[in-house]
Every structure is written in C-alpha cells, then in structure tokens.
Give the backbone structure.
Amino acid sequence: MTISSRGITHFVDQEGTFLTLDEWEREFTLYDRLRKIRFFSKYKIWKNFLLWKRLMRINKMKNY
C-alpha cells in the first residue's frame, strides 16, 4: 500500500487499485462493522471446531 495526500494505492501482482481517503475510510468502517457481527467474529472458531468434530467422528468409525 502507498498512502498519499490524495488517497491510497493498493498493489497486488503488478496491478494497483486507487481509493480516495474518503472511499478508503468508508470501506474500512463497513469492514469493521462486518467483523463485529457475531457470525463473522466467531467463524474461525466454529470452522475449526466443526472440522475437529468431523475428524473425530471419522476416526471413531474407522476404529470399529
């Protein structure tokens, strides 16, 4: 990322995307609000737990 007085440029694989500071601040605020929604804030924990639970079930079935 490159920050200037006019805005922010984000580079990924030789391609740049320019956002004005107002646009970037708005997108950051929306992103932060999304992260605070319970589903998104707990997603990684839930995903890991469900994966562990599934693997435990598979291992129990293999042992019988």
